[in-house]
Write a structure and sequence with these properties.
Elements: H1 84-102, H2 110-121, H3 126-140, H4 152-155, H5 161-173
Helix pairs in contact: 1-2, 1-3, 3-5
Protein name: Transcriptional regulator
InterPro entries: Phg_2220_C
Pfam families: Phg_2220_C
Length: about 190
């Protein structure tokens, strides 16, 4: 949850600045109600402060513009070569397979489909994702500590998925042995 900050900017005038003294060529305002500039408290917004007439004043404001660009060297959001509709259909197919194989009921929501679409965008195939689902279910579903991690955000986590896929491919090449032998393929 983001904290809320008061983003009001407050400015103050440094009355001791030499540019604001009579030696700084600032002339007093016509009809000013105070001769001592430090004691002047009329607000400009209320129209109580009369303007200077023909004052030869230096400009004390400066307008600056700063443009910044962040270059990361890597696309932060890789784009798949596949059209979005294909990616969505594949993501739905993978999620439906996960639901069928696990007996769970993950909804077609952003939190469930997002990690799946992310791996599809990295050019992993739907069949590779389904193989990884089968492997993680075989390995984790019977383990009371691991069964809670059978979910899209864990299986398809960007930093972990390639390792899960590698283990799933070894498991598949070995004939998909029962879970007792799964640790040999991790």
């Amino acid at each position: 949850k983001k904290t809320q900050h008061d983003r009001t900017n407050y400015y103050s005038i440094n009355h001791a600045n030499p540019l604001l003294t009579d030696e700084g060529n600032l002339h007093s305002s016509k009809n000013a109600n105070c001769t001592d500039r430090v004691g002047q408290s009329a607000l400009i917004d209320q129209g109580n402060m009369p303007s200077s007439i023909r004052a030869n004043c230096p400009r004390l404001t400066e307008n600056t513009t700063e443009n910044t660009t962040e270059i990361t060297g890597k696309d932060s959001c890789p784009v798949s070569a596949k059209p979005d509709s294909d990616s969505s259909e594949d993501a739905f197919r993978v999620l439906e397979h996960l639901n069928r194989a696990s007996g769970l009921r993950f909804q077609k929501s952003k939190s469930s489909l997002g990690p799946i679409r992310g791996r599809l965008a990295e050019d992993f195939t739907a069949d590779e994702l389904i193989l990884t689902v089968d492997y993680t279910i075989a390995k984790w579903m019977q383990d009371s500590r691991m069964s809670e991690y059978v979910r899209p955000e864990t299986i398809f986590r960007p930093g972990k998925f390639p390792a899960y896929l590698g283990s799933a491919q070894k498991w598949n090449q070995a004939g998909r042995p029962k879970c007792e032998t799964c640790p040999l393929y991790t």
